[in-house]
Amino acid sequence: MKYTKVRWGIIGCGDVTEVKSGPAFQKSRNSELVAVMRRSGELAKDYAQRHSVPKWYEDADKLINDPDVNAVYIATPPGFHKEYTIKAAKAGKAVYVEKPMALNETECQEMIKACKEADVPLFVAYYRRAMPRFLKIKELLENGAVGDVRFVTTTQYQYAAKEVMDAEELPWRVMPHLAGGGLFFDLASHTLDLFDFLLGPIKAVKGIASNQAGYYQAEDIVTGTYLFESGVHGVGNWCFSAFENVDVNEIIGSKGKITFSTFGNEPITLITASRSENWSFEPPQHVHQPLVETIVAELTGNKGVCPSTGVTGARANWVMGEMVKNFYVN
Questions:
Q1: Which parts of the chain have pLDDT scores under 50?
Q2: Is 284 in a helix, a strand, or coil?
């Protein structure tokens, strides 16, 4: 499948598409945003007018079957990803789906199968795989800056947001039937996918998930251990009802360590016995744009390959599912 220009349609033009992703489709070379959809026609029309998009819909099927659209970006909650991915694949459209890829790994595999049978590509919005900040970490690892990698650690905790404390209507991100789980699925997925990108696939996982604060039914704390195919070990702690916000990852090797955050903009730090160095990066204005540019390059045959596919996205879902399965046992 090779396009002269990628003509995007967005299903679910909500908050994430305002700055993070939507403008990237218009600013990338050989790419344009031609249609948007939202269940509220008025909101879809408003988005289209504000972003100079020629078409808007309140019916996803109409956008998917619009002949002017040849690639579909699915920006709904994960509970709808499988349905729209399969429909887009059957319509012969390339698919770019938000993360996490689906509610669970089984749904991910159904999506991969549908796209393979339709001979259309499937991409997942783990956009950190293309950001300069994280490409620098990959470069350091490939150049042996820390020697042989031994283990990785993640510590992420944050206070409970006001929107979930005594809320009459909970956000979809803590509703398992829409999100797959709680905030662990929404946030930890970025870090776990990033480690997959930096160090390769994870082959074994053990985890414990609980709900400690009681603000909602989904898990709000997860502790896990995992083993990469390469032999590297990993440990992670995620808590979403603590007293402050902390976001720290470490990659420890035989000769040094790299420290960085997943969501913050703190410098990347390399420490060895003989040196200590920092690298700072300004985040892209539209964080999806570097990844979108790889998708467009691949679709138009301009010597580009997107590093985030359905196959890699499904691996993150599998890891998360293994970590929380004790919590969701019926």
A1: none
A2: coil
Same domain, 85 and 146: no
Distance CA(102)–CA(107), nearest Å, equals: 6
Does 116 map to a domain? Answer: yes
Parent domain of 169: 132-283
Check if the beta carbon of residue 74 is closer than 8 Å to that of residue 7: no
Residues 69 and 155 in one domain: no
* Beta strand 256-260 pairing with 268-272: antiparallel
Domain count, the chain: 2
Other Cβ atoms within 10 Å of 159 Cβ, number: 13
Task: Pick left, alpha or beta for residue 301 (phi over 0 → left; psi -120 to 50 → alpha; otherwise beta).
Answer: left
117 and 210 co-located in one domain: no
pTM of the full predicted structure? 0.96
| 248 and 296 part of one domain | no
CATH number of the domain enclosing 50: 3.40.50.720
Specify if 170 maps to a domain: yes
Measured distance CA(6)–CA(229) in Å, rounded: 36
Number of C-alpha atoms within 13 angstroms, CB side, residue 273?
4
Q: Phi/psi zone of residue 160: left (φ > 0), alpha (ψ -120 to 50 degrees), beta?
A: beta
Can you read off the two tokens belonging to residue 38?
């939202």
The rounded distance, in Å, linking the Cα atoms of 159 and 247 is 12
**Sheet arrangement for strand 122-124:** 55-57, 31-37, 6-11, 71-74, 94-97, 122-124
State residue 303's pLDDT score: 83
- What's the pLDDT score for residue 1? 64
Using alpha carbons, list the distances in angstroms from residue 93 to 56, 214, 246, 250.
18, 42, 40, 39
How far, in Å, CA of 222 to CA of 275, rounded?
35
The closest alpha carbon to 105, from 308, 262, 312, belongs to 312
